[in-house]
Amino acid sequence: MVGLGPKRKPSRKGSMADVPKTLLEEIQNLEDIFTVDADRLKLVTEHFVSELKAGLEKDGQNIPMNPTWCMAFPDGNEQGTFLALDMGGTNLRVCEITLTEEKGEFDIIQSKYRMPEELKTGTAEELWEYIADCLQQFIEYHHEDGDLTALPLGFTFSYPATQDFIDHGVLQRWTKGFDISGVEGNDVVPQFQAALDARGLPVKLAALINDTTGTLIASAYTDQTMRVGCIFGTGCNAAYMENCGSIPKLKHLNLPPDTPMAINCEYGAFDNEHKVLPITKYDTIIDETSPRPGQQAFEKMVAGLYLGEIFRLVLVDLHENKNLLFEGQDISKLKKPYTLDASFLAHIEEDPFENLQETQDKFEDELKINASKPELELCRRLAELIGTRAARLSACGVAAICKKTGTESCHVGADGSVFTKYPHFKARGAVALREILDWPKGKKDPIVMLPSEDGSGVGAALIAALTLKRIKEGNIAGVRNVQKYDIWMK
């Protein structure tokens, strides 16, 4: 009997021998537009370092560099039960987290709720009412007997906010497609707490955090070599621990210079002046048609919210202005803004078949477009180019933080749908880091991006725990109302 041998995955290497010259020339044009070489990456990184420093110097810079008043890494011995609320770009998640006696261990129960699209452009009252409703549903479902005492809540509010205290946050600007009236320029904590109190819920906000800060702290809970936390998802951002002596805008507080302070960079706004980023005409269209033109320049090139839209704009341009794709077909579905997301590109990149059958099915099912094999080859290459550009530019932020702090070796905790689900994103980012930082070939990378623990949930609980711990120790820097914490100090 002849052995069958191992099963083989369908090949997708193929060639472009059947692609017409006009499409080959356009593919070359797209490669020229979207490819970011090592020299450009280094230029972007150097400018990134300068904008990180500028944000620490004073307020009002492109990159805000917001102090978070999270002032320690966890040691793994934190204990207690906490609520965690995570308001992301797409979903709202409520968690109850118990940090157990086992070092670095926790138990979690959670529920997820969809953020209604109409809420994203609604009013502040509608937002907080919806969130309070979800929290009430969670408590009533998991504590039917009403046994819940006043639990401390860590609220992951993943939008740029100025924090003068750990339980305070003035929204600087909405991102991720949100544009809710009555919130920008206001402290979100009393607005949110009022909605909770109106329902008589036994919940008090102990810490307002950003998901990047949560990612940093949750990652460090199980890995002592973590130094940076990143989010590559609907938006993009990073957090790291800085010494207060290196934060000139906090000098007036007279904090000991070696005091650690987690910084929420909010670096989606990097290079809003377009000094170094390789902006294409498609990036310009995205910016000009966004709710906030001129803002979040970096985020609009690398974040999951925009990758599908960049892809869609290119295809519409090639159809309408260059007559290169989908001749004679109805592309009305493709012409709808934001009809494609990053998962569409990921699906194309993961198509294992030589004839790109899965990609063809995707176009037919979702866009009612019957694409030819050469057209599919162009779409495939375009998806690779957009995904690769996002990964390579994303590495610039990580490299800049490490260069700014003099960090030569560490782990970077990364979370977000693009990092965890987009094919090759992690590997492409690792290649870019090697090029930017000139690491020797053939040796182990000294800085490695790893999937994070649940930063927006466990991280929120841990930061609440760390806040209570330092208040007990008498360190009340960055705490607005110490008396509020008395209910948990007994």
Polypeptide structure, described:
The chain has 490 residues and is an alpha/beta fold. The chain has helices at residues 21-34, 38-57, 124-142, 188-198, 211-222, 281-288, 299-302, 304-320, 342-350, 357-367, 373-405, 417-421, 425-437, 455-472, and strands at 66-67, 80-87, 91-99, 106-114, 151-157, 161-162, 170-171, 203-209, 226-232, 236-243, 260-264, 410-415, 447-451. It has 14 helices and 13 strands. The strands form 3 sheets. The protein has a 6-stranded mixed sheet, with helices on both faces. It has a 5-stranded mixed sheet with strand order 4-3-2-5-8, sandwiched between helices. The chain is globular. A hairpin with a 7-residue loop joins strand 6 and strand 7 (170-171). Helix 8 packs antiparallel against helix 11. The protein folds into 2 domains: 15-63 and 226-408 and 410-445, Hexokinase, domain 1; 69-222 and 453-488, ATPase, nucleotide binding domain (Nucleotidyltransferase, domain 5, 2-Layer Sandwich).
Concise synopsis of the structure shown:
GO terms for molecular function: ATP binding; D-glucose binding; fructokinase activity; glucokinase activity; mannokinase activity. The protein is α/β, with parallel strands linked by helices and 490 residues long.
Provide keyphrases for this structure.
490 residues; Hexokinase, domain 1; Nucleotidyltransferase, domain 5; 14 helices; 13 strands; 40% helix; glucokinase activity
